[in-house]
Amino acid sequence: MKIKDNFILREIAGEHILIPVGEAALRVHGMVTLSESAVLLYEKLQNECDEEDLVNVLTAEYEVDRDEALRDAKAFLDQMRQVGILEG
């Protein structure tokens, strides 16, 4: 899976914001704010990866165990699917 191309990540006033462009702007009304950990996962998803890759990113960057990292990765992926940001 990976992030669709029709989203741009910008930092605005210290906040990380996903902005839909092109066709995505017709489907997604508004912007999506990402936490620091969500930005890491979003950046990893710029290239094809799987859930395990996301867990590895979280455990390497933060002091969390694999179970917590897996829960966080799944929650992030669920949110991205709901918004329509993921492909594959």
Number of strand elements:
5
Major sheet size, sense and barrel closure: 3 strands, antiparallel
- Beta content comes to 15-25%
State the helicity in percent bands. 40-55%
Output the helix-strand order.
Answer: EEEHEHHHE
What's the number of domains?
1
State the strand order across the main sheet. 2-3-4
Q: Radius of gyration over alpha carbons? A: 13 Å
Distance between the termini: 4 Å
The tally of helices reads 4
Q: Which regions contain 5 or more consecutive residues with pLDDT less than 50?
A: none
Overall average pLDDT: 92
Shape: globular
Q: Mind sketching the topology for me?
A:
Elements: E1 2-3, E2 7-12, E3 15-20, H1 23-27, E4 32-34, H2 36-44, H3 51-61, H4 66-83, E5 86-87
Antiparallel strand pairs: 1-5, 2-3, 3-4
Helix pairs in contact: 2-3, 3-4
Structure commentary:
With 88 residues, this protein is α+β, with helices and mostly antiparallel strands. Helix 2 packs across helix 3 and helix 3 crosses helix 4. It has one domain. The longest helix has 18 residues. A hairpin with a 2-residue loop joins strand 2 and strand 3. The strands form two sheets. Strands 2-3-4 form a three-stranded antiparallel beta sheet. The chain has a two-stranded antiparallel ribbon with strand order 1-5. Helix content is 49%, strand content 22%. It has four helices and five strands, in the order E-E-E-H-E-H-H-H-E.
Brief summary:
The chain has 88 residues and is α+β, with helices and mostly antiparallel strands. Helices cover 49% and strands 22% of the residues.
